[in-house]
Amino acid sequence: MDYKTEQEKFWSSKEWGDEYIKRNSYYRVKNNIHFFSKILQRTSNIKSVLEFGANIGLNIIGLKQLLPDASYSAIEINKNACTELEQLNFLDKIYNQSLFDFEPAKKYNLTFTKVVLIHINPKYLDVVYKKLYESSNKYILIAEYYNPTPVEINYRGHEGKLFKRDFAGEMMDKYSDLKLVDYGFSYHRDNNFHQDDITWFLLEKQNIK
């Protein structure tokens, strides 16, 4: 089945995908270190990490400071973002492809998304949930814009490009062995380490295979 959607064309395009790269300043790394440090306090023994929708790697760079001995891989659809990722010589594998086309060759201790699911066409979310779940053998982190019920938000003048909902709750409903470990919120007006009003949920697989 062809899962190419308007969202994928949007983010792989030069006009919008590349523009997003320019907005991703490296000053965010220090904010990401603080963001992930709170989450990792509730984890143990993470040796491998896979990010879905890594862009230029600012999340992975932050995680690397906290988990220096872990291995890291990334999935990213935008070609120019992958060129930036290639500069991170510690990355094990870069998958320059759609999340829908990705087929994991191994399992990771932590799989995660950070403001990526909000841009997925809702009718294809189950496909991405399945890939997140099947790629993990321990933890799944969902860091997105939360809303108790699904809602669409205008994104920089574009319709059909940003959606808020209870992504983590939907995953727990879909996979009964997922346990909620912790959750939290990062405010865009935080005095020191702001994020873009992200609500994060750390899930753990109970039936590890």
Describe, in plain words, how this protein is organized in 3D.
The chain is α/β, with parallel strands linked by helices and 209 residues long. Helices cover 30% and strands 25% of the residues. The protein has helices spanning 6-12, 17-23, 28-40, 58-66, 79-85, 125-135, 167-174; strands at residues 48-52, 71-75, 91-95, 108-114, 136-144, 151-152, 163-164, 178-186, 198-205. Strands 3-2-1-4-5-9-8 form a seven-stranded mixed beta sheet, sandwiched between helices. Helix 3 packs across helix 4. The protein starts with 5 loop residues before the first helix and ends with a strand.
| Helicity range | 25-40%
Low-confidence stretches: none
Mean pLDDT: 88
The largest β sheet comes out as:
7 strands, mixed
What is the CATH architecture assignment?
Answer: 3-Layer(aba) Sandwich
* Tally of structural domains: 1
Number of beta-strand segments:
9
CATH class: Alpha Beta
Distance between the termini: 28 Å
CATH topology: Rossmann fold
Q: Report the sheet-strand fraction.
A: 15-25%
Supply the helix-strand structural class.
alpha/beta
How many DSSP helices?
Answer: 7
CATH level-4 homologous superfamily: Vaccinia Virus protein VP39
What string, H for helix and E for strand, traces the elements in order?
HHHEHEHEEHEEEHEE
